[in-house]
Design brief:
The protein is an alpha+beta fold. Strand 3 and strand 4 form a beta hairpin. Helix 4 packs across helix 5. The longest helix is centred in the N-terminal third of the chain and has 21 residues.
């Protein structure tokens, strides 16, 4: 549903815009008084410096060593990069810029770890990252007022310490407003009419999603964040679906990592190079499974996330919903994981 998400994102669907609810205002007030203070942000192992030096001061000798290493890497040919990566037992796949980034981050980590003697080359913001890529009802030429209903709810769980996909969840969902799938939708997603006819409505599926997250102690014992391929899954599909199902937007999905933004910023590429197929190609990966299957798309997005973590990217929340509106989360914002999931509640 990659191309159709792009089209949906470009539409100005006034029906999607929801006014701020009383619950959001209450939660905002609660967050100021009762939330647990986030841990100090470990963007990189701290290097011991003199008291007169600030945290943003890069005058420590280790940074000069890193700068010199980066200059040397910039002058390496593609063959030299592959040889050096192979010597270090690092992945040799990807375009030249990706291999440069991988090698630079390897040396940076080694230098900082040697200097600070702490940490490891994994994401230190969250214990787990939960990838979601919904499939929704669609038509070949969606009218501007078309209500996209979620018909597949997949989740793929990444352990950021082991850099492995450790679990998955998948359920189909019965649409309410337009229960009959278009031929185009069936062909695109591979989801048949029988699959959705035999499925439960969204609120029941969401309850099982919550139970699945709770069983894994996410938001209680372990810190976690949601991750999507673009903003549409949360800002459009989930937003619309909650309104159709007459339930409140789930708090655990109000903030997420938009991997397209993270990928573009980390590898320094334009938005046009952040489509799923392009990200995989540039990283030297190939798509595994059936395109537009929600679970297979989620798995492939997770593979990109794992590769980015391996390359030294520290994924963190960069988008959120507030008052029914999509907002960016600046990197300077306080770091916090998603809240403990709870069962859906009826809208007031």
């Amino acid at each position: 549903m990659d191309e159709h998400k792009e089209n949906i994102h470009a539409e100005e669907d006034v029906n999607v815009k929801m006014s701020a609810t009383r619950e959001e205002e209450e939660e905002k007030a609660k967050s100021c008084s009762s939330r647990i203070c986030p841990e100090a942000e470990p963007a990189a192992p701290q290097v011991s410096v003199s008291p007169s030096q600030s945290n943003s001061d890069f005058s420590h000798p280790v940074y000069k060593e890193i700068s010199l290493a980066n200059g040397h890497i910039n002058r390496m040919s593609m063959d030299q990069l592959r040889v050096k990566l192979a010597e270090l037992k690092l992945d040799t796949r990807g375009v030249k810029d990706v291999m440069k980034k991988r090698l630079k981050n390897h040396y940076k980590r080694q230098k900082l770890l040697q200097s600070a003697a702490e940490g490891g080359p994994t994401d230190t913001y969250y214990d787990y990252i939960c990838v979601v890529d919904f499939e929704a009802t669609c038509e070949e030429n969606n009218p501007s007022d078309f209500l996209h209903e979620i018909i597949e709810f997949p989740m793929v769980l990444i352990n950021t310490h082991t850099l492995e996909i450790v679990d998955t969840f998948q359920e189909y969902v019965k649409p309410e407003s337009n229960p009959t799938l278009s031929d185009f939708c069936v062909k695109l997603t591979g989801i048949t009419q029988k699959m959705v006819d035999d499925a439960d409505l969204f609120p029941d599926v969401l309850r099982r999603v919550v139970a699945w997250l709770q069983e894994r102690e996410l938001g209680t014992k372990y810190k976690y964040a949601m991750l999507t391929d673009g903003a549409w899954d949360m800002s459009k599909f989930l937003n619309i679906q909650c309104r159709i199902s007459d339930i409140k937007y789930p708090p655990f999905a109000k903030k997420w990592i938009n991997i397209r933004k993270s990928y573009g910023n980390f590898y320094k590429v334009p938005r046009t190079q952040t489509r799923l197929s392009t990200m995989l190609e540039k990283l030297g990966l190939t798509y595994e499974g059936r395109p537009h299957s929600g679970l297979d798309d989620s798995r492939n997005i997770a593979r990109i996330a794992v590769r980015m973590l391996q390359d030294g990217c520290q994924l963190r929340v960069n988008e959120r919903m507030h008052g029914g509106q999509l907002l960016s989360v600046p990197s300077s914002a306080p770091l916090e994981g998603a809240p403990a999931p709870r069962n859906p509640r009826a809208r007031e």
